[in-house]
Amino acid sequence: MSLVIVIILILVVLAILAIVMVSMYNGFVRERNKIQESWRQVDVELNRRYELLPNLVETVRAYAAHERNTLDDITRLRSQAQSLSASQGQASPERAQVEDQLSGAVRGLMVSVEAYPDLKSNTNFLELQRQLAETEDRIANGRRFYNANVRAYNTRVESVPSNIIAGMFHFEKATYFEVTDPAARTAPAVNFGEIAYRGDAPQQQQLPPAQPPAQQPYAPGSFQQPAPQQAPQQQPYPQQPPSQQPPSQQPPAQQPPFGQPPQS
Hints:
This protein is an all-alpha fold. Helices cover 58% and strands 0% of the residues. InterPro entries: LemA-like_dom_sf (IPR023353), MamQ_LemA (IPR007156).
């Protein structure tokens, strides 16, 4: 009887382990398919950019012949990215590097065409510029979604005990589609009224703090009270001589009493 119970317990444990293994396996398959689906969205937007770039190059070439080097770089990088897309079909460090270089070349071209007012007023160029800007935004959003799925999948591949199932069924880590161009990672600094550059801001020269005036040391018995401030002396009001005073200010002459002769 005890042997039967032991066998039943072993079977129950094996069934639980099998359920756990199947659940982990299905989780890996589900996350791998999610990564592939998110990468297809990014690949669609990348191919959309490949279709827009030839028209952009030809439009700019008709107005800005001096930008020949930049246009040649865009054409070369586009061809290289298309060949990697056809050969690999998925994200890889080589393709991510080429795509970043292509994005940098397109950004440099958009900056350089600011010197050509006729090109900036061209209707075809404005429409291509708008479509490229929308495509770049969708590429950035798809890249973030793809990298988030890759991070969740790689975490399960490296975690315990799911890493055991990953090793048994050869679930390898996925590759991120990261931005490797430093210019695309660094945000432009903002400076009011001036053009700021990328990188650390220069340190401002600090002036030394103003030192207070030196005080005389205190010695016992040598304390002197400050001299009181003297008020400014008032000038006396100039008086007029008696001869020049008005008659109204001279005292009246005294009359002698009645019956007495005046005194000489």
